[in-house]
Amino acid sequence: MTPEALAALMRPDFVFGVASAAAQIEGAADEDGRTPSTWDVFAARPGNIRDGSTPAVTTDAYHRFDEDLGLMREAQVDASRFSLSWSRLMPDGRGPVNPKAVAYYDRVIDGLLEAGIRPVVTLFHWDTPAPLEERGGWLRRDTAKRFADFASAAGQAFGDRVADWITLNEPTTVILDGYALGVHAPGRTQLFGAIRAVGNLLLAHGLAVDALRAVPVVGRIGITNVHTPVEPASASDDDRDAADVFDFVHNRLFADPVLLGRDAELPRGAKGLERLGLRLFSRLGRDRAVISRPLDFYGLNYYFPSRIAAGADPHGRTPDGETEAMKDVPFRLERFPEYPVTGFDWPIVPESLGVTIDGLVERYGDRLPRILITEGGASFPDEIGPDGTVDDAARVDYLARHVAIAAARPEVDGYFVWTFVDNWEWAAGFTQRFGMVHLDTETLARTPKSSYHWFRTVQHARSRQDPGPETTVQPS
After folding, report:
1. pLDDT for the residue 271
2. How far apart are CA 254 and CA 100, in angstroms?
3. Cβ contacts of residue 47 below 8 Å, gap of 6+?
4. Is the pLDDT of residue 474 over 60?
5. Which CATH number does 3-464 carry?
6. 0.85 exceeded by the pTM?
7. 375 is annotated as an active-site residue
């Protein structure tokens, strides 16, 4: 699909943006009052990060924001989704707000607005302050209350300018990778016992919604969950049951309480797994009303579909790396040999984005607010060629096909590319490149890739179209 054809699919108010997270781009890990997060602690342990890198520098966006903003402006980015570092804004995870952090984020938000770029803020993108984790992290209800304090402080500091607020990013991933399998920070390996942290994350979301509205902030409020279409590897009862369990944990554990106001129900296949702790994390009780506050939008992160088989994986494979804990999980992810894969070995199946959207619409009906695709993208082993350019045609194809599906859906108001500049990709370090701008990890030089020029061409084509009476989604 040509950039012009894709541009013609996009409504004038369709938001075409980019997404990032503080721990992956900011660097300046020990500057201006910031204290360690769980990712600093996790990365300091040998063997946790594939290439031995840490969040200490990453892309150095803390010092190079003006350079990145200039590239965004040139590409005509509609919106920039970024997260606030809890450890930078509120260094102990509680207590007074750090004025130097407020000054930094003021500069980011004001710079985006001056460039005509919509600021979209994620409050929690996985970097819990280390002092809170030392006290139990998301296994303690008190962390949800501390998060509400953080949300209130952020709302008071920036609530007059931020267009959209996202409370939590992918809480499912926090539970699975961080607390169950140990492949992400904080590195706990509690398997299905990690589900007892779900109620605290859900409560944190609801309390943050209340805190932001109490300020009140001018922007819209939502949450971001990652979803994947799930299919059994075969027609056997065991594979179907295993797929049901995975679908429960990945797709419904958080979405059902938030959107339906009720506990997610255990699937049939979970009954035999109760000895491993896979039981409902405790009834939500009176917290349900707080957890299910009406939202202004629902953030959907989509990357790939999942094929599940019964039985443990002897290699301990997960989408984010291998871990010993996965060898004790009684189901495994199977490959999709019929599809090409990304550098992360994730299957490329654009039509599954449509399947995911259909599933959300069917399950949640009128309880589902407007959808923003808050993340989508692909990693490839990009290199600078002899002529100084980076040809990432595979990423251009990936994005064009996925964005076309999103833009054609009336329920979807935007698509955010993960990510703008190659970032520090969690446990993979710098071994996986998702950016539309190449990062030299030694010099930190930025080089726009073919996908960057493609994005700019799409936006230029859109700007030549009749914008109609309204060209942006306005905050409520």
Report:
1. 59
2. 34
3. none
4. no
5. 3.20.20.80
6. yes
7. yes
